[in-house]
Amino acid sequence: MSQWNVLYDVYERRLRASLVGRPIPRHVGVILDGNRRWAKSIGFTASQGHRVGAGKITEFLGWAEEVGVEIVTLWMLSTDNLSRQSDELSELLAIISQAVSALSQTGKWHLRIVGDLRLLPEDIANSLRQAAQESPSKSALSVNIAVGYGGRHEIVEAVREVIRDAGQRGESLEELASRLKDSDIAEHLYTGDQPDPDLVIRTSGEQRLSGFMIWQSAHSEFYFCETYWPDFRKIDFLRALRAYAQRERRMGK
What we know:
CATH topology of one domain: Undecaprenyl pyrophosphate synthetase
Helix content: 40-55%
Structural class: alpha/beta
Radius of gyration: 19 Å
Number of strands: 6
Number of helices: 9
């Protein structure tokens, strides 16, 4: 074992020791950013970068499960991404479909697709649905795959569902408006039956949410990491958990 590997292992053990007895986030959201820039930096194509990034997911989920995280939401394709050039988008959609199928085939995690699959090509949407259906119905770690996802789009869809439900009950818009609560909208979000993310991690150095879970992340802690997603290491994840454990969560109080 090289000296570098020895030092890495020592540092990882120190990070893990610092988490003993400290709070671990129940739900972690991850913005998997930097695949294209990572690829460009070493002379790879964008598709090669996306493939390497997809290959990182299983490893990351293993780390999350190991420390006791219960839910992970992975943002793999935004509604904005759907405007990319058709060739790159087609390749990216195929990579995502293959990656989600591979996750399902491990039999380790319950998968849920969050996003508007109506925005995707029918074959890709069907593949994602099938992968989710074939994943275990229950698991210690549940995984949300955000594809065709945008926070504003999600809220608009939730409001539409609230209005439709009210109409089916014969309720007027005036009646709905007079009694509408934030919980009415929250329960119609893609993750309406899940706790909000405690921690949101974004890789690649960008320090913004870009529309990721903007309703659910109102009281989340954010951790921005300079590392591109394909280079994201276990120590980067442990650092994010350490930063989370050191913060005082006031939940708006």
